[in-house]
Specification:
mainly beta
Length: 387
């Protein structure tokens, strides 16, 4: 289903529920078509405490200053990372559990504004906290924090997830003894050009590069192409490539930094590191998310702990960064944030204050301006705008 039609269908559901008269000719009432042009559809992943919580399909209406819930896929435990396929009719989520049974990967259909569960499989690992699809959408890969490994899950033709075919374990440790006694795999992304798989390991201070061949039943070559050792105690978390694929931007969670790395012929090299901590700040930190603006001109990062800030950088011609602005996330623990596809707005999910806040984004300067929009919801931890 085209996203425009999906938004229209979702908006129609909202209007019907609110008793909106579609034939009202008053100037303040918009048609579905007019409303859809300014509405932004997104999936929200959460941590859950009760069966009625789960994954939410939501809309952000910047012109009206509203965030609304369209539907909820309930009875999903800790769906902390949620993605959709290219066609926007399938959704995949981790169920982040670290107990004896470990975590799960769950698939859903997305039709007419409704999330319908297809099936679940065990991740064969503990605390899956990140999920991505390979470029062919034949496999999903999860990063498993507590067990220090990553899992490969085939995708069936009907969109369901099949049992795990590979689990690749990391070994090692690093210098921060209370966080890095063992591996903690925190992210998995595919290179936009060569299709190699990049794994960020907070526990071992590494980014590990693997060959990935989607024609094989076990697509990952377990022998890495390359291992990048970042600064001891940095704690690699999330990462993103630029569109050319020659620059990798890596959040260092423990040291609250953003690292810039060049990439060429399978090898990563350190270019620069920039602190996310404001001058004179003293307190706990914990860098979390990194995003590029849709035009690739700006980078944004979040810092939790006692800072609770979003930091903006301008990307220079050589790929390095220049600090633009540091603003409050307007809440506690901005674990995740995302930018609307038109680049005009940023939504920040504050996990510990149970709020989503909106910011207007200057397309030229990259600066953020807080808006009045505030939405309360239980532990928002991942925002995924649907293109």
């Amino acid at each position: 289903m085209k996203v425009k039609n999906l938004i229209n269908a979702c908006l129609l559901m909202i209007f019907m529920a609110c008793g909106t008269a579609s034939n009202d000719n008053k100037t303040e009432n918009k048609t579905n078509e007019e409303a859809s042009s300014s509405a932004h559809l997104f999936l929200l992943g959460t941590y859950t405490n009760s069966p009625d919580q789960g994954i939410h399909l939501m809309t952000f209406h910047p012109n009206e200053g509203k965030i609304q819930t369209i539907s909820t896929a309930a009875a999903v435990e800790n769906p902390s990372f949620v993605i959709a396929n290219k066609a926007q009719d399938l959704v995949y989520a981790v169920e982040e559990n670290g107990g004896k049974e470990g975590g799960k990967i769950t698939s859903f259909s997305l039709i007419n504004g409704k999330l319908q569960k297809l099936n679940s499989v065990k991740a064969s690992a503990k605390s899956p906290c990140y999920i991505t699809l390979d470029p062919s959408e034949s496999f999903a890969v999860t990063a498993n924090y507590s067990s220090g490994d990553f899992s490969v899950i085939p995708i069936a033709e009907n969109g369901e997830v099949k049992p795990v075919t590979q689990v690749i374990a990391h070994t090692g440790s690093s210098v921060v003894t209370n966080r890095q006694k063992e591996p903690h795999v925190h992210a998995a992304i595919f290179h936009p050009i060569d299709g190699n798989l990049f794994i960020a390991d907070l526990g071992t201070d590494e980014v590990v590069v693997y060959e990935f061949d989607n024609s094989l039943e076990k697509p990952v070559n377990p022998e890495p192409i390359y291992r990048l050792k970042v600064a001891p105690g940095a704690g690699p978390r999330h990462m993103v490539f630029n569109s050319k694929g020659d620059k990798l931007y890596l959040i260092h969670e423990i040291s609250a930094e953003i690292g810039v790395y060049s990439y060429d012929q399978g090898e990563l090299k350190h270019q620069a590191t920039h602190s996310l901590i404001a001058e004179g700040f003293e307190g706990k930190v914990g860098a979390a998310e990194v995003r590029l603006s849709p035009d690739g001109k700006f980078l944004y990062a979040s810092n939790r702990g006692e800072a609770n800030e979003i930091i903006a950088f301008k990307i220079k011609e050589n790929g390095d960064l220049t600090h633009v602005q540091t603003v409050s996330s307007m809440g506690k623990a901005p674990r995740n944030f995302n930018i609307t596809n038109d680049g005009k707005y940023l939504l920040a999910g504050n996990q510990d204050s149970n709020t989503i806040l909106s910011f207007e984004r200057n397309l030229d300067s990259g600066e953020l301006k807080p808006m009045d929009t505030k939405f309360e919801i239980h532990k928002p931890v991942y925002i995924n705008f649907l293109p």
